[in-house]
Amino acid sequence: MTIPTDCESDTAKVAMNLIVEKHVPIAMRDGVTLSGDVYRPSDGDPRSTVLIRTPYCKDDPAHANTWINVLRAVECGWVVVVQDVRGRFRSEGQFVPFVNEADDGVDTIRWVREQPWSDGNVGMVGGSYVGLSQWLVAARSPEGLIGIIPAVTADDVHSGWLYEDNNVVLGFLAHWVSILLASSGLDEKSRPRIAALERNVAEGRIRTFRQLIEEAGEFAPYLQDWRDRSRSLVDPELAGRVEVPAFVIGGWFDIFLRGTVASFVRRETAGTQNPHDRLLVGPWAHGLMGGWFPARSFGPASSFDSLDPTSLQLDWLEEVRDGRNRSNHPVTVFAMGADEWRCFSSWPPEGADRVHLRLRPSNIDHPTASMEARTASLLDSPVPTIGGRTFFPGYKVGANSGPRPVEALHARNDVHAFVSDPVADDIEILGSVACRLEVNTADPAPVVVKLATLDGTGASELLCEGSSYSTPDAGNPEPITVDLGHTAVRVAKGMRLCAYVATSDFPRLEDGPRTSLNVSGEGPVLELDVLRLG
């Protein structure tokens, strides 16, 4: 099939026909054949290749074009190969998440380099599972791989994908397993069970990983292997060993934010950072890259589309391929509150101070915190997930993600609220956030901390969150540090920061037995990277 087109991009200006080869067989080392679609210029000249390996169907234009416009990339002189991973859609074999991606990716790159239309250079792009699999391939350093662009993903499956500091990320897992199984050709008897999977989590009928396995394990046997919290599916130091240049893309409210930023920072710590490495983080959630949420809009300039992602990524790949390095500021982040993009030479940025901020118990009474709401927050009802780094429920519409108002948490008798003094000057939090505190719990339990801004009217806006795990020791206070991830936000003079502490966050995290929580000592201490503006 040929499609006449003209390229008018900054990358190249050529006139050509496009050739699209569908369902091309690509043999793996063990004899399994994977299926790929090849989009290329018809002139026959050797070209560099963009490779996308997806479990979400190469024939679906929405997935094939999620991160880069395939036809536009070909117009700009690239070949694009979009491949179904092993065991998905038109590719042979059995799909076991993550297990075969390194070998199959290496074999696919070798196949690309053997084709007459290839000049031997291959770059990989894509987000989420498609992004994590790039790290697995890059760790093998296959010949010809010039760069990877992993987006909204982590480089560590265990702590960045399945668990958050030993707590199961249940809502995400239920959604992800559901969409994989829904497209797996299940029989008519099985489909209603899978269709109800997410609904049963959202409505509280499935609250634990064990219950999720009972409901879906026969269709997704790999869930059994993921129950072992001590067993990492991927080396957590993976990114630190990868020497291939990486352009890392993430979102402040993305489910994988912590792993995204860690994969960039880890390379600097390990001494493997490449001069071409880049980090880009916007005010986005997973599958929601427009900078808009039901409770907050960051303006049209905040959207991923406003950055022209196809040109952004192709230009970077060409810089790497040709040995050019245009930028002395490899870090670009969107500063919320100021609602503008900022460029820095490092992350956290130079000039930011590590500040320790003591919080005190809140005595704020919100008019929205009615007696009925307080009565409803009984210990047999988990603290509900409100916004933040989740997409469940409401994937791609932001129904429950991002900077949601969270003052309703004051209404619950199982949530402890702690506030700072009003900030004396405008500040910007630019970097990592952690919360140190001493806790007592009657039973082993998660310790969840959510950080929000609080204005003079009592209105709050969630910034970041994280969790740790408490293991009681005969009633002795246990000092713990909760990693809240990273953020970039301006906090105006007079505003306060508020930390909410609880032992549940459902359905974002697996629910556990109800237990009492006491925060002892002088109160939590926030550790922030802060740039003072006043």
Describe the structure.
The chain is α+β, with helices and mostly antiparallel strands and 534 residues long. The protein folds into 3 domains: 271 residues, Rossmann fold, CATH 3.40.50.1820; 59 residues, no CATH class; 180 residues, Galactose-binding domain-like (Jelly Rolls). 21% of the residues lie in helices and 33% in strands. The chain contains 14 helices and 24 strands. The strands form 6 sheets. The chain has a 7-stranded mixed β-sheet with strand order 1-2-3-5-4-6-7, with helices on both faces. Strands 17-18-23-20-21 form a 5-stranded antiparallel β-sheet, with no helix packed on it. Strands 10-11-14-15 form a 4-stranded mixed β-sheet. Helix 3 packs across helix 4. The longest helix has 14 residues. The protein starts with a strand and ends with a strand.
What would CATH call the architecture of the largest domain? 3-Layer(aba) Sandwich
Name the CATH class of the largest domain.
Alpha Beta
Binned strand content: 25-35%
Number of helices: 14
What is the global morphology?
A: globular
What is the fourth-level CATH superfamily of the largest domain? Alpha/Beta hydrolase fold, catalytic domain
User: Percent of residues in helical segments?
Assistant: 10-25%
Biggest sheet overview: 7 strands, mixed
From the N-terminal CA to the C-terminal CA, the straight-line distance is: 61 Å
Mean pLDDT rating: 88
Total domain modules: 3
What is the C-alpha radius of gyration, as a whole number of Å?
24 Å
Number of strands: 24
Derived from helix and strand composition plus strand pairing, the structural class reads alpha+beta
